[in-house]
Amino acid sequence: MKIFRLLTPLLLTIVAVFCFAPAAWAFCGFYVAKADTKLYNKASQVVIARNGDRTVLTMANDYQGEVKDFAIVVPVPTVLQKDQVRVTEPTIIERLDAFSAPRLVEYFDPDPCAPLPRFFDRLSLATGAVANSAAVERSDRSLGVTVEARFNVGEYDIVILSAKESGGLETWLTQNGYKIPQGAKQLLQPYIRSSMKFFVAKVNLEKFDESGYQLLRPLQISYQSPKFMLPIRLGMINATTEQDLIVYILSPQGEAQITNYRTVKIPSNVNLPVFIKDEFGEFYKSLFQTAYTKEGKRVGFLEYAWDMGSCDPCSADPLTQEELKEAGVFWLNDNSLSKQTKVKPIPITPIRKFVPPAFNSNVFISRLHVRYTRDTFPEDLTFLQTANRELFQGRYVLQYPFEGELKCEAGKKYKQSLPKRFEEEAQTLARLTNGNIQDIRKKMKLSVGNLTYSWLENVQSWFGLD
Fold first, then answer.
1. For residues 259 and 381, what is the distance between their CA atoms, to the nearest angstrom?
2. 217 vs 207: CA distance, rounded Å
């Protein structure tokens, strides 16, 4: 804390330089919106906390329907015991989503004729988962299925299975009351060949009623394995449309990447027309679909990579130590990690914005967004932890022009620069969303205010634009 107090005056001085230099037409701003998972109708969310060979995997249940019909089958590398399975609160995943979601920020140009730096006080931050039972070992020789463990956790009845062939496993599940979709046999077979086990859960209706919860809570499993992967193929059995998957990877090291498909950064740090403020959700969906198509669809997008000890701009506060533990982070008290992991200098982004130094929390979050079908993603996802701690976020800027009286020479130059800036914003929006440039220009005329309306009217003639 003493170091922080010593740094505070220096940080404030740097902020003042970056925010209030009138000659550069600097601007200060605030967060106004975020593009979270609620944008997508069929978005699954998974949290993976991993250090070394140990993994804690949290699966958000977005199941819609009668809870008595719920069943989940997840391939796992080892036999899990009861103490390796728990339920957690859905708010943890909501917090991770809010903290890492792509966000929109607003900035306001200062008066270029002002003799002294001005302070803009318009600043705000929007803040947007048991009864004990003995494990039973039983083998059904006719089906080739072995029940490796059986227990109850919260409102879920859990069995851990191994199998010799997929047809037998499919039959066993059906005979034991698990409502699995047709066509599971084909997708189960590769996991059986790899000697993986199967984590199978269904709802214990009595326990669910006793819990008082209205929705199913996320399941969290922990295991030790050199395999850093996420099985997604079973989720495609009944999929008729593209599926969205958001993976939050928590690591003491740095950015996580997909190894068997390309990982690319979502387009970011661009200025957009100010009317996007009222259409940010639709804008981001269009941007993602355009980038997804442009990259050939077989790609995972990095939407956020940041040290959990800081945020800028903040769409939500970083998770507390207790919340991180709830999310599966198990290495927080390991002091040796702080000696091994160093924070790299933060690069200055092209946007004129001060980025404060991050405090190394030993928890680095990577948000990966995958849109997939059986054809585009025929393999399960495999990941790699890297030592790259460079900060990145999906960040989109609205820059409002100054609309006061401009009589000085600097004001005249500022005024002359605006038509080109507006056109660049329009062209950027059209490129990112595959939108119609004429429609974008029309919307801009209605959204930037009376002062700049006449300038936009002349953009086409000044620059020879259609």
1. 8
2. 12
Q: What's the token pair of residue 269?
A: 């740090």
Distance separating alpha carbons of residues 242 and 292, to the nearest angstrom:
12
Question: 335-342 long-range CB contacts below 8 Å, 24 or more apart?
Answer: 337/51, 337/252, 337/362, 338/362, 341/252, 341/253, 341/254, 341/389
- Which one, of 2, 1, 29, lies nearest residue 15 by Cα? 29
- Which helix (H) or strand (E) segment holds residue 86: the answer is strand 85-87
Written as one string, the DSSP assignment of 319-377 is PPHHHHHHTT---TT-THHHHH--PPPPPPPSSS---PPPP--S-EEEEEEEEE-TTT-
Are 223 and 84 contacting, i.e. CB atoms less than 8 angstroms apart? Answer: yes
Classify strands 43-51 and 243-251 as parallel, antiparallel or unpaired.
parallel
Contact 250, 329 (CB under 8 A): yes
- Identity of the residue numbered 253: Q
Instruction: Enter the pTM of the model.
Output: 0.78
Tokens in use for 290?
């355009």
- Of 266, 263, 256, residue with least CA distance to 396: 266
Using CB atoms within 10 A of its CB, is residue 300 exposed (0-12), middle (13-18) or buried (19+)? buried
Give strand pairing partners of 34: 103
Establish how many alpha carbons lie within 13 A of residue 111's alpha carbon, considering only the half-sphere containing its beta carbon: 13
78 burial level (CB within 10 Å; 0-12, 13-18, 19+) = middle
How does pLDDT run across 355-399, given as a tens digit for each residue? 444 445 799 999 999 998 888 888 889 999 999 999 999 999 999
Cβ pair 385, 253 in contact under 8 A: yes
Q: In whole angstroms, how far apart are CA 44 and each of 40, 117, 195?
A: 9, 47, 26
CA angle 137, 60, 291 (to 5 degrees): 130
Compute the distance between CA of residue 320 and CA of residue 53 in angstroms, rounded to an integer: 24
CB-based contacts of 108, cutoff 8 Å, min separation 6: 27, 28, 29, 120, 122, 399, 400, 402
Residue located via tokens 């318009």: 122
The predicted structure's pLDDT at residue 30: 53
Which is more confident, 194 or 16?
194
| Full DSSP string of 115-144 | SS---------------------EEETTTT
Q: Among 89, 361, 367, which residue's Cα sits nearest to residue 248?
A: 367
Q: What's the mean per-residue pLDDT of the chain?
A: 78
- The DSSP bridge partners found for residue 197 are 76
Strands 156-163 and 197-203: antiparallel
Return contacts of 133-138, CB within 8 angstroms, 24+ apart: 135/81, 135/82
Distance CA 395, CA 388 (A): 20
Residue 54 has pLDDT above 50, yes or no: yes
